[in-house]
Structure formats: structure tokens, C-alpha cells
Amino acid sequence: MTARRLFQTGLPRRGFLQGAGAAGAMMLGGLPRGAMAQGSDTITMWTPGGSNLFCDIHTKILNDFTATRAALAGADMSCGFGDGGDYTQRLFGAIAARQVPDVSMLWDSPVSLGAQGAFMPLDAYMAASDKINVENWPGGLLASCQYQGVTYGLPVTAGVYSMWFNADMFAAKGISTDRADFPKTLDEMRRMSKEFTVWDGDRLVTAGFVPPRDTASAPVWASINGGRFYNAAESRYEIDSAQNIELYSFFLDWLNEEYRGDINLVDRSGHFDDGYVSNSTGLGPAFREGRLAMMSQGCWLMGDFWAEPEPSFTNWDLAHYPVGPSGSATASGVYPNWFVIPAGATNPDEAVAYLEYLATEGVVEWFRQIPDVPTNALVEAAPPEVIVNNRGEVYAQEVTAFLQELAGIVTPMWDSPVQNFGMDQITLAVEKIYTKTASVTDALAEAQRASQAELERVLSL
Amino acid sequence: MTALPTGTAKRRTPRNRGGGWIGKVMFHALMLGIAAIFLLPFWWMLISAFKNNADIFSLDITWWPDPVRWENVVALFTRPDFPFLRQFGNSVFYAGMVTLGTVLSCSVAAYSFACLRWKGRDAVFALTIGTLLIPAIVTFLPTYIVFARMGLVGTYWPLIAPAFLGEAFYIFMMRQFFLGVPRELIDAARLDGAAEFRIFWQIVLPQAQTALVVVALFSIVYTWHEFFGPLIYLNDRNDYPLSVGLFTFRTQRAVEWPITMMGSLFTALPLIVMFLFTRRLFREGLATSSLK
Amino acid sequence: MTSTPAPSLRRRRSGRSEALAGWLFALPWLVKLGLLTLLPLVATIAMGFMTMPITGMPRWVGMANYDQMFADPAFLKSAQNSLMFAFISVPIKLVLALGLALLLHRARALAGFYQTVFYLPFLMPAVAGSIVFILLLTPGAGPVNLALEGLGLDPPDWLRDPQAALWTLVLISIWPLGVETLVFLGGLQNIPKDVNEAAELDSPRSWHRLVWITMPLITPMILFNLVIGIISSFQIFVQALVIGGTEGQPAQSTLMFMVVIYRTAFRYFNLGYAAALSTMLFLAVLAVTVLVFWSARRWVHYEGDTT
User: In terms of Cα–Cα distance, which of C265, C54, B145, C267 is closest to A117?
Assistant: First the structure.
């Protein structure tokens, strides 16, 4: 096929113009519909994505709500944009263009964007409501949406962090599988961990607990040692506080003692950080393979536990975080699904009504299918089906109650106006600590310096 | 310089490159070896697509999937998370529209630079070349804000409309081709009183058909891969072209390598088919454009 | 055919209408050049001197962003990474592409097959190419390390060793060298036959011919590939994001400049600083390219060029 046959000589000029016109018409007609300007009788909602199941559930909740509202003719749900970072971009663009949805779900803290005026303050609405009133939210949880006393969003449901343990492995070692008997202090847990750690040459076959590196849940560890990373009341970072230095020195010491001081060996032997397949090495989750006795994990794993790759056991259980050497009380953490009303939304009243509906009624259906724990005190939610089906109704009720108990002792987190920056700094510091390219003090000090500087920059905007 | 003895003119026989057929075999062995190295990633993609997670990461490296998991193909096309066919359609739409706009606009602009004389032409052309040096990210932020304030974020407009205005790389390429059109043809037509557009449409364009096809092919390939623009400007998962669909698919919670590989293969497949049919035209385009 | 006017009149009229047509034909491109290229460039440069909250007015801060930049470890590290990456990958790619082109030039049988093979990687999506390299380079489960060990070498941990991770990126960027190879091939095939024949008569040693005859004749291609290579190596983004994420793991060794710009704008919401970084990138690329073109006068030889 030569190019020659594609063109007949002497195409009339009209052909060119017709072609251009046709192209234009095709574009207008065939253009995939995007987020165009909405009328005020439609409520629009955006979510960052997740599985199709997730999207379907939320579309249904939104539609159910709309049916009960006389003022609304319809609902427009836009779902699935990619991971958190990409979604925030789009939201940010929409805000810049002043074409925002009425309600948006967020997987990034609303504090950073809220601090710059991107979202509507909700305090007045909350005060006027009996459903989303301040009293109905566990204290530490609401902190993740507040900046300098103003609330910019609601943490309608949350993935709750807790310790997970393999009851079968415990039983095999003669250790009590009762949740109340789970180690209460870090020292205790460290001693117990040794019982499970087995090496085969350079390969870690089984382990008790591997010192944590996850940044999202790091504030929990700081908290159980009596410290924290960010002090919201005084708008100050405390990354290199004495407690944090002590905490990470403890972890580093643990790594040296039990894991030969080489985190790379651990990583090559499997994925010991959480219950999922590693994104960087592709290795399977040691916990689900029955090779890890204890780990820190968010409760969303409950929905994925029985997915591929198939786990080798089913008797997992949850427990409280142990208390660190300088700490006095246990705590837990959350990774909320936040909901915000972007500034400039066309239907703020309807949006608030939707939040009320979602927080108290919509979440029931949501929780039934996906283990995101409803946080509003008014909610009576049945446990997720997946747990009922796999572990029985009794256990499902019991573990749900435990999760709600945990939600009540959440440590403040996600509350920095430079949240992403701070988290990246902490990730970097922890990496340096575990790979021994910097001392604990230096790594944390550097993270502190950079985060504090960035914080001050934003505060002076 | 070696002086040749007269009377013994050196025969123009094909030189023995290293001794007859042995040399040929060795040469091809080398080439095939290199080809194998280059094909390795491609091969790996192919076999990984037909394995499952466990097989891919098993410490027993297998060069052929065992068993061959044909169900992965079915899974790709029936998976609700990943509307492959829909995104494939979007890719075709996106690449097709951009290519259409590119071919139209760049040929027009190139004609102006190559065959028309006007004041400031060479300066503007130099500026055009200069824009090739501007990384996209530099122009991206303000462009994004402009489109955002126009309310066009979430649609394909920011991605397609600029293509109808031109693109420096292709203008450059087409200008080279147009420079090869004999001047006399154009001048004769002008003397005859023909309008410029007529000259462009009926004389120059047909002469540069190869150019048009090459630009079209390049544009299709580049746009098919184009990732950043659609990621930023599009909202709905259903609107994504394949290039973005793959990426977001990978960042969802647990990376499923086999199906990602399968998706990548099918993403590249139309391009490969297209390339096989039009191989020669690519090469011609490159050779001409690089002769500055 | 109407009566033709006097020659001088004809020239002037056709000159004017030609100029008008020139502007008209170039108009769409000029619009884009002005609005979507030059204007955003100027705007970006201006934004680099401001601080920009998401809602609210931007504020002029002079050199503050640039002061921050030169003290910012992420900037310094990513600049270093990007420069290293450019200076490593571009020459390697050029040399390999040239070598490959020379080999392809000699191939008679199977020439089409070989060309297709070397061009194929270019048709792969960048993300997929990066992912498959992760699979290939995974210690234990990937064949690359297996092969290297088989050769008696001690392969690095490509993805987790900070020293080696950059080389992973280099490999990924070299793999699709089909474009450069074909440019060189086109250049080689354009060398007129009589030049080749004369050369063969003069100096039978192929190495001699290569250096003194062939190379100078393909210098335009070298220039083209060099410039394109430099520009694209500074702009590497997707592959770096896939391999190292927004942190440039491991240990910021794969943190490329474009990734820093991206995360500064869209993860840290610091638009003014991101604009300053973008300006820096533009100036750097411009400087290097101007340098290359300036030096090109010395070593590039155009066939039939009298200047």
C-alpha cells in the first residue's frame, strides 16, 4: 500500500473544508461527557475511585438520598480517578476553575487544601444539625479535618488501624489467643516476636513482628510512646522529639537484634509490612501466607483477606497496640474516607443534607459491603458480609464492636496543613534509618527541619 | 592513496566481509543475539500475561507459562474495574482526532514556512524550532489554569483542540518534505494566477503524500502513548484512553501483574499491527527530517 | 486567461498576496505559539517570582523561591540525578544506536525483520515498558540476574540498591532506541554510492573508512539524535515515577527533576515554587542545547552545504 493511493490529485477545496467541518461536528457530538456546568437541581459528587463495587455502592447511596429530596431532580456521580495524588490534582483544578462538585470524597487529608480555603467550613452546619453535631464524632477523628478550630470536612467512615495476629500461630506456640492477653508493651511484644522468627540461610522463613515503616500509621506508634509528629494546637512539628528518637532507636535496635540489621534481607524474603502483595517486589504477603505472626494493619484488609492470593489460614484476630517505653496509654489510628464540600459548590444545603444522610444511614449499606468503619456515634451498623460469611455472625459482631471501640481512642493524625510534605519527609527519614544511611537523630532532625520550614511557609500565605 | 596498476581494474565484486558464508552466519548470529536481547522484555511481557502472580514471582524462572492461562484474556475484557474496550475506543478517538488535527494544521503551517515568502518568516521558524526545547511541564501549569478557568477540565477539549493549531515537531518535519517540492511547479501555478490555497491543496500536498502519512503515523503512536495530558484533564474513568487506564490500574491497591501485562500487550497491539504494515514509511520520514 | 500585467506590477502584487497568504496559513500555528507556548512560558517564569495560594491572590516574592531552591535537598538531589542520567544515558544510547545502525546497514537478508525488532520497543507504552523491566530485574524471579550470575558476574539489586537503581532507568530508556537507530540508518543509506565506492578504492580498511568518511557524513544525524536525546532525557517522568514513585526510591536515587516539579505542584500545592523549578529546567535544557548547537558548527558537516 503506497501513500499515493490515499490521495487523489485535485481534491476540491470544498473537500478540505467539509472535512474540517465534519471533524468539528464529530468532536462536539462524540466528545465523552465531562464535568460540565451543573444546574442547581442536580447534586454532583466525585470520588477518587477504588473498585467498581465501591463506585456502585456510592452511586446507589447518592441516588437513594436524591429520591428523598424534593428539591433535587437528579444526581451526578463521577467516580474513579486513580490514586489519591492524582485525584487531588483534579479537585484542585476544579476549584481553580470554579466548577466544583457539591460533595467530594477525599483520601487525602482535607486540612492542607482546607487551610487554603478550598473547602467550605462546616461548623455552622454542624452546630445546627443533630446528626453531624460535634458530639457525634470521636474527638481524635475530627482533628483530621480541622485547622485552627475550623472544620473542613467529615471523616464519615474510616479504616481503623490495629494490631493483627495469627491466632493459629499463637496457639501452636502455646500462647494465649485471647485478645486481652496480647502483649501490652513494646518490650513484651519484642520478646514474643523472637519465638516466631526463623531463618533459613539468608531467607526469613517466619517472623514475629517486623519493625514498622508505614508512614500513614506512624503517628500511632509515636502516640503509644507518648509523642507525636505534629502538634496541631501549637502549629508545630515535633518529628525529632525525644520520644520519637527513642521509638525509632528501639525499632532499629530490634531490627539489628532479630533481623540481622539488614532490612533488605527481610524484603527479599517476602512482604512483611502489611497484608497485601508488595508493589515493589511483587512478593506475597507473609501474614496471609502464615509466615508472620503479628502486624500493624488497617481494617480494610478484612474485605481483601480472602482474595487472591489465597491465605493459608483464617483465624486472624485484632488487638490493641502495645504501649512504648515512654508511653502511658494505647491508641489507635485511622485512615478516613473524608467528605468535603468544595468552596463554590452550587448546592451547599443539599450537600450538607447528604452528609447527614450518608453519615447516619448511607454508611450502613457501605459498611455491609466494604469494611470501612462508620464513625458517627449514631450509627448502628451490621458487620460486613464478608466477615460474616467467612468467620460467622458472632465473631463479626464482636470484631466490629472492637473496631468501634478503637475508633474512640484515635490519636490525632492527618491534621497538618502540609500533610503530604510532612509525610514524605517522614518516609524519607524512616528509609534512611532502616537502611542505616543516617542516624536516627539526624534523619528525624532533617525531616523536622524541612517540614517545619514548609509549615511556616504555608502559615504565612 | 594506493595507485592502481593500470590494466587491472579492481572488480566491483561484493566484498567478502569476513570470509564467505561463515562470515554471514557469524554476522547473523550476532544480529540475532542482539535481537534476542531486545526482544527479551517483550517476550517477558507476553509470557507474564499468561501466568498468575505466583508464577511470575516464583523463584523457578520459567520461560514459557505453565500452564498457559488463557483465562487472563477473558478476565481482561470482562473486568468491570477496567473498561478496556471503552478505553480502547477512547484511545482511537483521541489519537484519531489529534492526528487529524495535526495533519491538517501542520501541513498548512509547513507550507507557509517552506513555500511562501513573508517578512519575519525565518525568525518565526527559528522560534518554532525553539519551542521544541521547552519541556511540556513548563507550559503546563499556566495552560492548565487557562483551561480550568474555561471550564474545560474533564473533557477532551484541552487535549484535542491544540492539535488543530499545529505542533512544532511535525511542522518542522513537513517543512523538510515541502522544501523538496520543485519550485518551478509552484511558480508556474502562481504565474497562472492560481490562489495559494489551490496551489497548496492541488500541487504541493499530493507531492508530499509520504510526509502526510509519516506525520500521521508518528502522531498516532505518540498520542497513543500520551499519558500526562489525559491524566490531568480527564475526570471520568470511562473517558480515559488506554495509556492512562493502565497506569491507574496499576496503582489500585494490589498490583496484579499478569493482567497489567495483558492490558499492556493489547494496548500496544494495534500499534504493532499498524507499524508492520507501514514500516517503510516511518524510516523515510526520519531520514528526511534529520537532514537540517 | 486574462492579459498579464507588466512584470514589475505582477511581482509586487503576487509578492503582497503571497505574504498575506503566508501569514494566513501560519495563523493557527502562530496563535498556538503565542497563546499556548510563549505566553505560558512567560507566565511560568513570572509565577516563579510569586507565591500562589490555591484561592486568593498571588503575591510577589522576588527571589524567595530561588533562594529556597538552592537550599532544598530535593532540588539538589534531583538535579544531580537528572544530570547524571542525561550524561550517562544519552551517549550510551547514541553509541549503541550507531553501532546497531552500522550493523543493520550491512544486513541484506532479514533486514526488515531486524528493523522491526529494534523498532518494536518504541511502540510499547512507557508504563508497561517500565513495569516489565521491574519484572525482569527482580532478584530471584527475574531472568536478568540469573543470566548475569550464569556469566559469573555478581549482579546488583537493581531496584533496591541506590547505586543501581539509576541504571535501571538508564536501561529502560535505552531499550526503545529504534528511533535513533533508524535515523542513523537513514543517514547511512543516504550516503551516495559513489562516495562509498571511492572510499573503498582508497582505503580498504573498514575502520579507516568508518572514521574518516562515514562518520563525518552522518554528523547531521548525530546532532539530531543528540539534541532530541538530551531534551527527552531531562524530561523523563513516567518511567521514573513507576520505578521510584514520588519519592525517588530507593533513597531518592531515582528522583528526577520532572517528578519533583510534579509533586511540588500537585502534592504539596506549592505552585510558585513549582513554576520556579520549571523555569530552571527550561533554562538548563536551553543552555545545554545552545552549547550543542554552537559546538555543532565545528563538527557537523552538511552534504552540499557551502556555509
Answer: C54
Contact A424 C51 (CB under 8 A): no
Phi-psi region of C125 (alpha: psi -120 to 50; beta: other; left: phi over 0): beta
Q: With a cut of 70, list the residues of chain A below it in pLDDT.
A: 1-40, 49-52, 80-86, 88-89, 93, 96-97
Contact in structure between B249 and B82 (CB atoms under 8 Å): yes
Q: Which residues contact B143 (CB under 8 A, 6 or more apart)?
A: B158, C36, C40
Residue B139 has pLDDT above 80, yes or no: no
User: How many residues in chain A?
Assistant: 461
DSSP-assigned letter for residue A136: G
Q: Where in chain C is the domain with CATH 1.10.3720.10?
A: 66-305
Intervals of chain C under pLDDT 50: 1-2, 304-307
Reading the block at residue B42, the C-alpha cell is 517483550
**Pairwise CA distance, residues A32 & B127, whole Å:** 35
Q: Which of C10, C25, C271 to mutate to test the interface with B (most CBs of B within 10 A)?
A: C25
**pTM across the whole model:** 0.82
Q: Do A112 and C266 touch (CB under 8 A)?
A: no
Domain residue spans of chain B: 20-58+65-76, 85-290
pLDDT of C76:
94
Quote the pLDDT of residue A211. Answer: 95
Chain A residues with CB-CB distance to C263 below 8 A: 85, 424
Provide, rounded to the nearest whole percent, the portion of chain B with pLDDT above 90: 10
Q: Which CATH class is domain A21-159+335-400?
A: alpha beta
* pLDDT score of A38: 44
Q: What CATH number has the domain spanning A160-333+416-460?
A: 3.40.190.10
CA distances from B8 to B3, B12, C198 (A): 11, 12, 16
Asked if the domains at A21-159+335-400 and A160-333+416-460 fall in one CATH topology, the answer is yes
Our separate counts of H helices and E strands in chain B read 16, 0
Interacting residues of C4 by C-beta distance below 8 A, sequence separation 6+: C10
**Residue B142: per-residue pLDDT:** 72
pLDDT, position A286: 92
A282, C141: Cβ pair inside 8 Å? yes
pLDDT at B251: 46
Mean predicted confidence (pLDDT) in B150-156: 81
Phi first, then psi, for residue A86 (nearest 5°) are -65, -35
- pLDDT value, residue A96: 67
Domain range list for chain A: 21-159+335-400, 160-333+416-460
Q: Does A309 touch chain B (CB under 8 A)?
A: yes
Long-range CB contacts (< 8 A, 24+ apart) of B78-85?
B79/B259, B80/A52, B81/A51, B81/A52, B81/B249, B81/B252, B82/B245, B82/B249, B82/B259, B82/B263, B83/B237, B83/B238, B83/B245, B84/B242, B84/B245, B84/B263, B84/B266
Residue C211, C-alpha cell as written in the block: 572514521
CATH class of the domain whose range is C66-305: mainly alpha
Q: Does the pLDDT at position B211 exceed 60?
A: yes
Decide if pLDDT at B131 tops 80.
yes
Beta-strand ranges (E) seen in A48-151 are 74-79, 103-106, 146-147, 150-151
Residue A211, CA atoms < 13 Å, CB-side half-sphere? 25
For residue B221, the distance in angstroms to the closest alpha carbon of chain A comes to 18
Q: Do C128 and B246 touch (CB under 8 A)?
A: yes
d(CA C96, CA C225): 12
Classify the complex by whether its ipTM is higher than 0.90, answering yes or no.
no
Q: Within 13 Å of residue B166, how many CA atoms lie on the same side as its CB?
A: 33
To which CATH superfamily is domain B85-290 assigned?
Answer: MetI-like (1.10.3720.10)
Residue A137, SS3 per DSSP: coil
What H or E segment, with its residue span, contains residue A334? strand A333-340
What pLDDT sits at residue C7? 53
Q: What is the distance between the alpha carbons of residues A331 and A45, in angstroms, rounded to a whole number?
A: 33
